[in-house]
Description:
By secondary structure, the chain is α+β, with helices and mostly antiparallel strands. It has helices spanning 22-50, 70-78, 108-121, 138-145, 189-206, 229-242, 261-276, and strands spanning 10-14, 18-21, 84-87, 90-93, 125-127, 157-163, 168-174, 179-183, 214-218, 280-281. Strand 3 and strand 4 form a beta hairpin.
Amino acid sequence: MMDRADKEDMLARWDDYGYATYGQLKLMDTVVTAKNNISLVHATLNWIAALEFPVDSVVEPFKDQVDTTKDDHVQAVKELNLGQCFVCKSLQYGVDFLDFRENLWLHSSSIVGGLLMLRETYQAVGVINLRFHEFDAPDQKLRTARGFLPDDTSYERVISVINVGNHWAAFLVDVPTKRCYLFDPLHLDSNIWIVKEEVLNVVEKVLGLTDQLQCEVLAGCTQRDGYSCGLWCLVVLELLLFGARPSSWNDYWSDTLYDVVGYLRLRFLRKIIDLQSHFTVAE
């Protein structure tokens, strides 16, 4: 162990090697992390190589990557910064974006990447920091929710996705009409209640719309597995940003999207990788 009084920094010992210092252990950890990250990259490249999907099943606004070659996607993944970067002062790890591959459950970093990609893709869109839901204290919730500066008066739509218990649910606030659309891929009343409470108690205050929002539940998309909730939240939010509303949902949504889950995952991954060049790399 480290003895500060005697300035000893030997933390571990192997019979066939001897003692290892803190610096050596830190280097070992870096090497192991790098190996693991490279393995994730290879898994992603193998997934891309094997991915097939019916092109005719893709609908707008998701067609923008259908003509992109696999070689192009592979090159983008190889150039992905796997290390740390800052997004609005929030520390992210580029390797986490690889959660979009195969049938993995999306973690917070991937969801944040997807939300910020939507903010950059569509006009006048703000993002509520999804991590506000992790806190209990009202002031901390408000402070965290404002992390991505969603209260800019130029924003007409504000979006987010929150974890309601190992499951993602989403909302979009249409500021001019003062309506909020709530979405749970499983359509559970308990999940919708959680999202609605956060919208009414936190999001309204952040946006200066206290007691003004009318909430409406969107039920036009249903999760069909145990791991794609995050993906469908992002898909539904993009459709809403593209112009869909509950009254016109069938004009935008197509059940054929269930047949192209792999493509949708790859599309979000690629667009987030393209966005990463705008992030500040951590030293």
